[in-house]
Amino acid sequence: MSDSARDIRQVSECVWELPRTGGMHVPGRVYADERLMSHIRGEKSLDQVANVAHLEGIVRYSLAMPDIHWGYGFPIGGVAATDPSAGGVVSPGGVGYDINCGVRLIASGLTHEDIRGRVADIAKALFRDVPCGVGSRGAIGKLGKNELDEVLSEGASWAVRKGFGTDADLDHTEERGRLSAADPSHVGPRAIKRGLDQVGTLGSGNHFIELGVVDEVYDARAAETFGLRKNGVTLMIHSGSRGLGYQVCDDYLEVMQDAVRKYNIRLPDRQLSCAPVESPEGKRYLAAMACAANYAWANRQVMMALAKRAVASVLGGSEQSLGLRLVYDVCHNIAKLERHEVNGKMKTLCVHRKGATRAFPAGHDDVPSAYRAVGQPVLVPGDMGTHSYVCVGTDTAMAETFGSACHGAGRVMSRSKARKAAAGRKLTDELTEMGVFVMATGKGTLAEEMPSAYKNVSDVVDVMDRAGIARKVARLKPLGVIKG
């Protein structure tokens, strides 16, 4: 453990600070309460928070949300903003392999009573109509290279143009589902090949589609604004850029390792390989990463259309008559150029959010007009057997975390340890007893993603709420889950 991680101290009820030591340019800050810190303290992830503080141009703090756990380079749950005008860098390790892994929440006009006795039927229809699992291929067929370039450039609007949704969906998607910096010419041939047939696929691992119900409302005004009501039925989709995004990350890690030598960048961990944002290498990575982010938004847009059709096929009626509508789509695992206040001045910063969610407050221009009076929805999924949460961004988040909050529960068990712990257990039966109908392509995924492999999401969200970073709006109870 590093000296800074050993010397972590509590500065408020839910904030802990790692002092600057060695080559750290800024302190580290971790959002957690005593209970969560008892698990976090001593983990390698705290060393990673300290390591990130060594990045050139980093501003204010190296930050970690309460769902922090060990990742590649950056901790998962890590946030860091760098100043391009001061030589600030962009690091693929601060984005991750699953570029723009994100969450999309769909509300409905249905109540829990409307689907009583139909949950299994709906889950089976979702499992049938939304391709999932390792190597799954999209329901829309294989794209040609030119059409894939359109996906990479246009993002979710490509899917809408192809009949998978409406312009209203774009209004309720972060960045309207498109990063304009995208340039397909900077995406390598292996990434292109992997992306040709995976649009509209869920994938495996922690990706899921969840049928749920609102079982608690904390902020009636915000919930009403978001179209959520007690006992209302919801769908949540969690997926990303699939093999294309993974390959983009892998390709540019090699580029960045060369850049570190070229620009004489000193790092405590080679997994933080990076390049100045304004360098040719930095610009190329941001252009390729934006392509992968756009691919992910198109992917979720297509899956939402497939999921809505699946629900309608079981319950009858149209998607409109069932009141199925997008609440919001948030991304994590991304680096974006955003305007933030630093020492009283507005600056353009490169904000890395790895396993962290944007959480902009009421009145911000980037919050959809329909939600601007209350703030941006922040979607925090749990695991297969626990609740998920809808929160809302705050002014405190803008002041302290560059408008960022947690993205989920956070692992406490590696996938290999989870598989060992699940040996001999009948997880499907256990989840059924908890009131959750689950379908998956393999037992391995269920074992890796079992509830005990994660922190208690309620503890994580409570820290964000008490710290004033993301205020609780509603809690969702899972009824049916499909996984790869």
Helix-strand blueprint:
Elements (H helix, E strand, L loop, with lengths): L2 H4 L2 E4 L2 E4 L9 E4 L2 H7 L3 H9 L9 E8 L6 E7 L6 E2 L11 E10 L7 H11 L15 H10 L1 H6 L5 H5 L17 H7 L12 E10 L2 H7 L5 E8 L2 H21 L12 E2 L3 H36 L9 E7 L2 E9 L2 E10 L1 E3 L18 E4 L7 E6 L1 H6 L3 E3 L8 H8 L4 H7 L3 E4 L2 H6 L8 H10 L3 E14 L1
Parallel strand pairs: 3-4, 18-19
Antiparallel strand pairs: 1-2, 2-3, 4-5, 5-13, 6-10, 7-9, 7-11, 8-9, 8-19, 12-13, 14-17, 15-16, 16-19
Summed up, what is this model?
This protein has helices spanning 3-6, 34-40, 44-52, 119-129, 145-154, 156-161, 167-171, 189-195, 220-226, 242-262, 280-315, 395-400, 415-422, 427-433, 443-448, 457-466; strands at residues 9-12, 15-18, 28-31, 62-69, 76-82, 89-90, 102-111, 208-217, 232-239, 275-276, 325-331, 334-342, 345-354, 356-358, 377-380, 388-393, 404-406, 437-440, 470-483. The longest helix has 36 residues, at 280-315. Helices cover 33% and strands 25% of the residues.
